[in-house]
Design brief:
There is one protein chain. With about 400 residues, the chain is an alpha+beta fold. It has a domain at about 1-55 and about 130-200 and about 305-380: 3-Layer(bba) Sandwich (FAD/NAD(P)-binding domain), CATH 3.50.50.60. It is about 35% helix and about 25% strand. It is built from 11 helices and 20 strands. An 8-stranded mixed sheet has the order 6-5-14-15-16-13-17-20, sandwiched between helices. The protein has a 6-stranded mixed sheet with strand order 8-2-1-12-19-18. The chain has a 3-stranded antiparallel sheet with strand order 3-7-4. A hairpin with a 5-residue loop joins β14 and β15. Bound molecules: flavin-adenine dinucleotide. Flavin-adenine dinucleotide binds near residues 31, 50, 62, 313 and 314.
Length: about 400
């Protein structure tokens, strides 16, 4: 039996390293891939699975904040992100007629060599994913697609014994691991199984619309268009592309038919003139529009049980107001691997990881919700900007 498992691992892309811990990463989103990359770099044997049969990276582009660039550097992917994404000094704020009101320069954080990192940027989600996969592949790790874990069991432990998890997979295999890292996202099934009392994610009263479009050269910063009934922005994600995001207040977590999305989005944009009226013209039935009612959740007590731990949205799912959810997911992977390197066992590593991460991630979730609430109340742009600035200043502190 053990011999067959070893063969499976060899086929599945195990690497053998100094730390020699067998780690399963469940979910190949930004949190799972970042964790896998850092744990493998530190010499662990890492296996990564994802429930999807093929990659379907939804959600258009990502805005990258200054603190997220620091995490990107720590992951060792900065030059790829800078080459394939877009960096810019900050945000140009406009009114609903497209008149430029002011430019906010995003403060940058120092790189490891002391040079300033970019203060702001953007990248297509699929591009970031591709970069993380490329770096994992260099370590000999391929994601096994179309695979879920159906159960995770752990032995009853004596205080001095190290934990091990026995995982049953959807292809009927059963394998043992020293640690399981769950990065299954907002609707994590493993979280539901392991923390059955956890409430479901909460709908926030807003929906976010996103669509990737050709980038006119004039969109050389992040653009905000304020003062309308909806909040709209453009983020450059490459030399050629940008994405539009639009935040709308909706009374309930409403489903909308895919075929109607472009009509509704164009209607929502109709109160804007200037740059956005040209953007509006570019949207049609073929546009790949991602519409998503916003939900949020934060697991407050602990993010691990025995040698199983949650990372990313599975533990702390934020709304997009601070554009920092992906940054938090990357930082999770970095901190987890640091603690794994120095702790005596997975349990201790996960406890220390939680202590380093929980307040920071909670601040992102709570302040994003609070900014969303200000948007719903149509509070002044000054009030909203103050909370964004103070939150980003907190995020600039070391993690
Ligand atoms: C509208 C919106 C806009 C956002 N914009 C930004 C932004 O501009 N910048 C930013 O930094 N953050 C942003 N965020 C937050 C960011 O998208 C998330 O925080 C981040 O993607 C979380 O990554 P994750 O890996 O935890 O989860 P996910 O990206 O959800 O990945 C989870 C993965 O797990 C897999 N999976 C799920 N269940 C299983 C299972 N049972 N078995 C195996 N695999 C499974 C899924 O297929 C998926 O690949 C935004 C969020 C929203 C909602």
């Amino acid at each position: 039996m053990i011999g067959t498992q070893a063969l499976d691992w060899a086929i599945g892309g195990w690497t053998k390293g100094m730390q020699d811990k067998r780690i399963l990463v469940v979910g190949a989103g930004i949190a799972g891939l970042s964790s896998a990359l850092m744990l493998a770099k530190n010499g662990n044997d890492v296996m990564v699975i994802d429930a999807q049969d093929n990659w379907e990276i939804t959600g258009a582009g990502l805005t990258i904040s200054g603190p997220s660039f620091r995490a990107i550097e720590a992951l060792g992917i900065l030059s790829d992100v800078m080459n394939l994404g877009h960096t810019h000094p900050g945000i140009k704020v406009h009114d609903t007629n497209g008149h430029h009101l002011k430019t906010l320069i995003s403060p940058s954080i120092a790189a490891q060599n002391g040079d300033p990192l970019p203060g702001a940027g953007g990248i297509l989600r699929s591009t970031l994913h591709g970069i993380l996969l490329k770096h994992l592949s260099r370590l000999g790790i391929q994601v096994q697609m179309g695979l879920k874990c159906t159960s995770i069991t752990q032995d009853a432990l004596t205080p001095d014994a190290s934990a091990r998890a026995r995982v049953r997979f959807s292809d009927q295999r059963t394998l043992d691991f020293d640690a399981v890292v769950v990065g299954e996202g907002l609707y994590s099934n493993s979280r539901h199984l392991l923390w059955p009392q956890t409430p479901s994610p909460t709908f926030t009263g807003q929906a976010c619309w996103r669509v990737v479009l050709a980038r006119p050269q004039s969109v050389d910063h992040r653009f905000f268009f304020l003062g309308g009934t909806v909040k709209v922005g453009l983020t450059p994600v490459s030399n050629e592309h940008m994405y539009l995001f639009l935040l709308e207040s909706i009374p309930q977590n409403a489903h909308r038919k895919t075929a109607e999305l472009h009509v509704i989005l164009k209607h929502l944009l109709s109160e804007f003139s200037g740059e956005l009226s040209q953007v509006r013209q570019a949207i049609n039935a073929q546009s790949h529009i991602v519409y998503r009612p916003l939900e949020s959740h934060f697991l407050s007590d602990s993010w691990s049980t025995g040698c199983v731990v949650l990372v990313g949205d599975a533990a702390h799912a934020t709304t997009p107001q601070l554009a920092s959810g992906a940054g938090m997911a990357m930082e999770d992977g970095i901190v987890l691997s640091e603690e794994f390197l120095s702790a005596k066992d997975a349990k201790e590593a996960f406890r220390r990881y939680y202590l380093r991460r929980s307040n920071r991630c909670k601040m992102v979730v709570q302040n994003s919700l609070q900014i969303g609430q200000l948007e719903l109340e149509r509070a002044s742009a000054v009030e909203q900007a103050q909370l964004v600035e103070s939150s980003l200043a907190q995020l600039a502190a070391p993690y």
